Fold:
Amino acid sequence: MTLPKLHVAVLMGGWSSERPVSLMSGNGVADALEARGHRVTRIDMDRDVALRLSEAKPDVVFNALHGTPGEDGTVQGMMDLMGLTYTHSGLATSVIAIDKELTKQALVPHGIPMPGGRIVTTEELFQRDPLPRPYVLKPVNEGSSVGVAIVTAEGNYGNPIDRSSKGPWQEFGQLLAEPFIRGRELTTAVLADRALLVTELKPKSGFYDFDAKYTDGMTDHICPAEIPDDVTEACKDIALRAHRLLGCKGTSRSDFRWDDTQGVEGLFLLEVNTQPGMTPLSLVPEQARKLGMDYGDLVEAIIADALAAKAAGAGVSGGKG
Structure:
């Protein structure tokens, strides 16, 4: 789909913990669109976002928000009510995919391999371990590895976890506890119903947390990943199936842990990101670039997907979740 010259509102920023990443993504998208001759209105989301979008009257909104309320269905519902065409996934998909437990409920019955585990209150953690150590604790609805803690037998959180120890239990009333899967970090992007490549992420220290994701030089990206062909194909198949089952639109990114002592049986999907980063260090632009699609091409492809879905009658968002 060849894009005509458009007026694009790029929605970025907001007030989630991922605000700095969203600003990097949004400004990168806006720069690329302006370089290709599109008219761009940059909107750093605040409580007047509906008024600002109404005044802008864009042809399409590029949603470059990360985290809540831009990735959880809230902004999507607002734009649906306003009759706006916007990129990425719609309301229902966003509500489900931002919630790690709801994502499991949607995908596991269809044969998508995901870790077990359960929701626990922080008060429970101060009484006893919810799972045998090592295990992982993470917020139910945050992205970019915000608030993730790995609890090991040798860790310094205490046993049971001490109330005064720094960790996500000091910020969230509920957490998802999952078994820790030893092995390697893999990720696969999907663009407009096509799985791209598999990237292996090798943090130079610790695990692939927020700092490792967005600080230059802290993580090596091996793309394409140097893994067996059957594992590569399994990643791409699972990512595409998850994208379709959840009803994702535009682009998504599926994150995996792979226990390389177990072959394909050691591969587990951790989460699906419905609005993956578009920063210089982000994984979707990197995979697209490896396949010969530069950053501007990628941005236009995401917009084209939203416009094509609207033209096909799939809803004002370019797709119902």
